[in-house]
Design goal:
80 residues; alpha+beta; two-stranded parallel sheet; globular
């Protein structure tokens, strides 16, 4: 994996209690970078390209969101 200058910034902000949005052109390594940053953490990965995940995220109730997020501190929503 290539060293990314944004990696340090993401790591600094990771426990700040706010969402971190990473945008960029297709196929430049955004998912790979975030997988690397989160590799030692317990996180929920949701791939919005997957039809069942997309259905789950269409219009969930608050209770449904609580159920699938559970106790995860980190949620990685790919292809939002």
């Amino acid at each position: 994996m290539f060293k990314r200058t944004i990696e340090h910034t993401i790591k600094e902000k990771l426990n700040g209690g706010k969402a971190i949005v990473v945008v960029g052109a297709r196929q430049v390594g955004k998912t790979t970078l975030l997988n690397e940053i989160l590799k030692d953490k317990d996180y929920l990965f949701l791939d919005a390209d997957d039809p069942s995940t997309r259905n789950l995220l269409q219009s969930p109730t608050t209770e449904q969101i609580r159920t699938f997020i559970g106790d995860y501190k980190y949620i990685f929503l790919d292809e939002a």
